[in-house]
Amino acid sequence: MRYISTRxxxxxxxxxxxxxxxxxxxGGLYLPESWPTLSTETIAAMRGMSYVDTAVTVxxxxxxxxxxxxxxxxxxxxxxxxxxxxxxxPLVQLDQRHWLLELFHGPxxxxxxxxxxxxxxxxxxxxSGSGKHVTIVGATSGDTGSAAIDALAGREGVDVFxxxxxxxxxxxxxxxxxxxxxxxxxxxxxxxxxxDAQALVKAMFNSPDFSGRFALSxxxxxxxxxxxxxxxxxxxxxxxxGAPERPVAFSVPTGNFGDVFAGYVAAxxxxxxxxxxxxxxxxDILHRALADGDYxxxxxxxxxxxxxxxxxxxxxxxxLFDLGGRDGIALAAQMAGFESSKAMRLTNAQREGAAGLFGxxxxxxxxxxxxxxxxxxxxxxxxxxxxxxxxxxARRADLGDVPVVTLATAHPAKFDDAVERATGxxxxxxxxxxxxxxxxxxxxxxxxxxxxxxxxxxERAVSTR
Length: 465
Prior knowledge:
Layout: E1 3-5, H1 15-21, E2 30-32, H2 40-44, H3 51-59, H4 69-80, E3 91-93, E4 98-102, H5 112-127, E5 134-139, H6 143-152, E6 158-165, H7 171-178, E7 185-190, H8 194-205, H9 208-211, E8 216-217, H10 224-239, E9 248-253, H11 258-268, E10 273-280, H12 285-292, E11 294-296, H13 316-323, H14 328-341, E12 343-345, H15 348-355, E13 358-362, H16 365-379, H17 385-396, E14 404-408, H18 416-423, E15 444-446, H19 450-460
Parallel strand pairs: 4-14, 5-6, 5-8, 6-7, 7-15, 9-10, 9-14, 10-13
Antiparallel strand pairs: 1-2, 3-4, 11-12
Helix pairs in contact: 3-4, 3-10, 4-5, 5-6, 5-10, 6-7, 10-11, 13-15, 16-17, 16-18
């Protein structure tokens, strides 16, 4: 399997190279040269499989030429052995039509663990014995940072510099990052929003002077391996609800478009996905883009669902590339226009290509709270604000008798104040991290400027020169 850049000029890479590279050298994102497909017989055979065996079946085409099935199985067995539920990503029924796919049984209580536990092992495997050193630079709106830090803390050959927007993540999210005191972990709280942090990361990758001094890599969903691992749970859930004979819809709370793009990949591989509902909060650039073709950046509004407080959705570029005929030169020009003006219109081909599979909705604070209350009172399920946005959009969608799976992306205890306000129930952290608020924190606060952040990293990272 070879991977190409959405912007058309970076060299094609294999799976190992694309995992270590993260962002493409031309500023684009990597995608497979072509989509592998699974037969209906192969999909049907997943019904009785474990999560690990499902993962091997789904991911094997993407790692072809780099990892054998047995090697991939060993990595998945280790990665998902740390999850607290035997099903890894269990389904929970809410009523006759609605289901939750619980993605928060990993070590940091968020869906990011599903991908990052595996990605940490991939980094270790690819770097082992090579003498190479990788500098991970990432931005987080809350959950990516803690999941990446847990997966990479103490691993040889890797330093992690994680940027988070100061005061704009929950206390639990912050502490899950800043109480990891491993010497290769560096937490940076910057003044500004997640979009500002994400822009700094992209600028570092795109600066020849800075990136040329360090072997930079990424754990954000700009890294293809992250998305690949997330494709698995769409298959795992759908076959338990009747696929491939029965289509299934998914409602995905998203800001950066990575999690829902994984659903798009599943559909391209042959999974019968009836609809992918893109559920946004009031930071609704994705809803506006899909509903009206208007992809224009607004001002980030802080909300009780901070992981979705985003106005620039990095992974949307992958969809635009695939829907636009995979014309990297045209997309590079389109994205350059957006980066300079902060606004762009989707082309007719992009809009028409998205219309069949994607729906979208914008959920405000009142509807978010109502969804949390409904789940608690009608089904006995306590859900976090992000999941509530997905559930509110799912319940408003008119999909007939198609089962709708809402991705439950975080444990409710990560957002205990918001949950308690909506439901009267204060969720508690699982015993395995129950001492989180007693642990020592360590992080540095910096201005959200390129010079300040790069100077900080340069003092601490391992130079390749």
